[in-house]
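**User:**
Everyone, produce one record:

**Assistant:**
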Amino acid sequence: MASLQQPSISLQSKLLPSSQLPRAVPSLNLSFSATFPSLKLTTSRPLHGGARMSATAASSYATALADVAKSNDSLETTSSDVEKVEKVFSDAQVLDFFANPTVDIIKKRQVLDEIVKSSELQPHTANFLNILVDAKRIDLIKEIAKEFEMVYNKLTDTELAVVSSVVPLESQHLAQIAKQVQKLTGAQNVRIKTKIDPSLVAGFTIRYGNSGSKLIDMSVKKQLEEIAAQLEVGDIQLAV
């Protein structure tokens, strides 16, 4: 499985001195109603029930993005875009920069342009990110990414399996795991996400199902030897 590498982003290189900033914010083509008709944009923040309201907002944004992607037959590419964006914003420095209300909007757009170019994002994904920045909802990007993944999986009958291991597993082993998850779930497609978790000491775990509710635990070497035949991955070699 090809891993997505986080683009190298220099925040400092895009922060212009205040004397060099244009006096007026440039006009951007961010026609929200035309591009994302299923979503009503609001910049106000809820005073009560913030967590629940944020979850609802994240779901609405994710659904709107999925609707646009489905309408222009770019659901797969948009899913890839979202994964790239999620990796970029997993950097606390990047997220804090965009969520900081004291940072000028022009500086945020300049850095966002660099992210879009380096990550080779589609125009509607770039437009979506600009809308989040303008609406002051970029802080929801992680929740939006999770919600989008659930919407994508439902639309494509895809089961997500998260494989955590001490060392990276070979692609053929991941393919075998995907086959077994497909047999267990009956899903048309299976997506594998990999994580490195040194705390497992040896072996790996497979988490799948609704919100990762089901777990196959092979994180102890002795257990791996006993049940490897059931998963048909007995040839996996672990570095311990």
